[in-house]
Amino acid sequence: MDDTVWRECRALSRCLLPLVDQEPWRRDRRHADFREHDLDVLAGERLLGTFAALTMHTVMVDAAAAGHPATIEALHSTLLSTIARTVASKRDYEFLAAAPGHPADDTEEQDLAAFRLLAYRTGPAALTFVYLGGQVRVTFETLAGRDRAGNGTCGDLRQWANQENLPS
């Protein structure tokens, strides 16, 4: 699969929190939840973004495996509710399998390494992975609901990010 799809998944993931944080109480609540789970806020948000990017990319990898196009256009037409359901229906190793073979830079490599370490935790520490997955699911569901028909897509994310002048 072309790396441009991964790059777009990564870019869209960086827009998620600023878009959902248009309701400031969401950010405050997320930060408090991170602290309750012994997660540094910055590290938690980076992990959440990486999880979101991997979830979008997992959907595209699955589409390619089923013979469907795995293009940016296909990504943009993917419903946010589909992405949200994917978080709940996949195992940690399935997200890892969708990771790019060659990270673009050191930051991306560090984020993917942190996600791998999180996915391999066992015992009570493994609950952090489940918690972050729930946060990713709720984020996609929240944004999907912002579309009037409740059918928000990844393309809508791109449009909303552009309207808000968010860097991607």
Please outline the helices and strands.
Elements: H1 3-20, H2 24-36, H3 41-65, H4 72-76, H5 80-89, H6 92-97, H7 106-119, H8 127-144, H9 154-163
Helix pairs in contact: 1-3, 1-8, 1-9, 3-5, 3-7, 3-8, 5-8
Task: Write a compact overview of the structure shown.
This protein is mostly helical. It has helices at about 5-20, 25-35, 40-65, 70-75, 80-90, 90-95, 105-120, 125-145, 155-165.
For the record, give the distance between the C-alpha atoms at the N and C termini, rounded to a whole number. Answer: 21 Å
Quick one: biggest sheet?
none
Structural Rg: 15 Å
As a percent range, the share of strand residues is under 5%
Number of distinct beta strands: 0
Low-confidence stretches: none
H/I helix tally: 9
3D shape = globular
Mean pLDDT: 92
Helix content: over 70%
Task: Note the run of SSEs as H and E.
Answer: HHHHHHHHH
Please explain how this structure is put together.
The protein is 71% helix and 0% strand. The radius of gyration is 15 Å and the shape is globular. Helix 3 (41-65) crosses helix 5 (80-89) and helix 5 (80-89) runs antiparallel to helix 8. With 168 residues, it is mainly α. The protein contains 9 helices and no strands. The longest helix is centred in the first third of the chain and has 25 residues, at 41-65.
